[in-house]
Design goal:
Strand 4 and strand 5 form a beta hairpin. The longest helix is centred in the last third of the chain and has 19 residues. The protein starts with a helix and ends with a helix. Helices cover about 25% and strands about 30% of the residues. The protein is built from 6 helices and 13 strands. The protein has 3 domains: about 60 residues, DnaJ domain (Helix Hairpins, Orthogonal Bundle); about 100 residues, HSP40/DNAj peptide-binding domain (Sandwich); about 100 residues, HSP40/DNAj peptide-binding domain, CATH 2.60.260. The strands form 5 sheets. It has a 4-stranded mixed beta sheet with strand order 8-9-13-12. Strands 3-7-6 form a 3-stranded mixed beta sheet, with no helix packed on it. By secondary structure, the protein is α+β, with helices and mostly antiparallel strands.
Length: about 280
């Protein structure tokens, strides 16, 4: 990522030129004005680096094994400073023996449907120095409530003599009516007319990713019976393989007229069997 190119300035641009270019780009691409969230986040990241003399110097003259984005020396983690670093407690781990600023924890809320495809969010939070930080957060498919993504070096900066803390993004997934989750499996319900249960039918199940799947309901299916549709659950966070979609069948309570018909059918069947 070329920060100079993002702001549209040369490498010899003065601080005033960089600031002017930032204001122009931020105004043009601000989400409130219909701009793209990702582009806006890139602009803020570029300005944060190029407007700071120390960060700009480190960016212009990168040193071996120095992870610029995280403000920490690398410990061999190829994903350091990315959303995949320490994601959900996995991957490489880096020890922080030296004093550093405190970590910051913020929340990120997504819809239940978005656990299927993931979600890209732009999160803003204020540091102890009163600076407003903007971070582009990528929530991967398969995330669940309580999972945390760690961003090294994006925490508080109150004590300038110490490295910044880390940013922890804690995920919350909204609930969805008639849908539940167990691990990588999804559970939903379908209400079917009692006559269709007796005679059998084919129903359409709308999946969370917008697909329509046909499900055969055999003759004589009972209330509470569960059917499995493989491969229409939630992607596993590690393998990407989707779990199953379980469909629980519920029957309509017959109306008075329907009850009379059912009673008549039962009487006729009883006569056939007894004659």
């Amino acid at each position: 990522m070329d920060y100079y190119q993002i702001l549209g300035v040369s490498r010899n641009a003065s601080p005033q030129e960089i600031k002017k270019a930032y204001k122009k780009q931020a105004m043009e691409h601000h989400p409130d004005r219909g701009g793209d969230h990702n582009k806006f986040a890139e602009i803020n990241s570029a300005y944060e680096v190029l407007s700071n003399a120390d960060k700009k110097a480190a960016y212009d003259n990168p040193q071996p094994q120095f992870n610029f984005n995280s403000n920490h020396f690398s410990s061999g983690n190829p994903f350091a400073g990315t959303p995949f670093d320490h994601i959900f407690g996995q991957g490489f781990h880096q020890q922080h023996n030296a004093p550093r600023n405190r970590d910051i924890t913020v929340g990120a809320t997504i819809e239940f449907d978005e656990v299927i495809i993931g979600k890209n969010l732009v999160i803003q939070y204020r540091l102890q120095s009163q600076k407003l930080e903007t971070v582009n957060v990528e929530i991967p498919p398969g995330a669940k409530s309580g999972d945390t993504i760690k961003y090294q070096g994006l925490g508080d900066d109150g004590h300038r003599q110490f490295p910044r803390g880390d940013l922890n993004v804690r995920i919350h997934v909204k609930s969805k009516k008639n849908w539940d989750r167990e691990g990588d499996n999804l559970i939903t319900k379908k209400t079917i007319n009692v006559f269709d249960l007796l005679l059998g039918c084919v129903i359409i199940v709308n999946t969370l990713d917008g697909k329509k799947v046909k499900l055969n309901i055999p003759k004589g299916t009972k209330h509470g019976q569960v059917f499995s549709i493989p491969g229409y659950g939630i992607p596993n966070l590690n393998t990407g393989k989707k779990g199953n979609l379980y469909v629980g069948i519920e029957s309509d309570v017959p109306k008075i007229e329907e009850e009379r018909i059912l009673h008549s059918i039962a009487v006729i069947r009883n006569q056939v069997y007894t004659d």
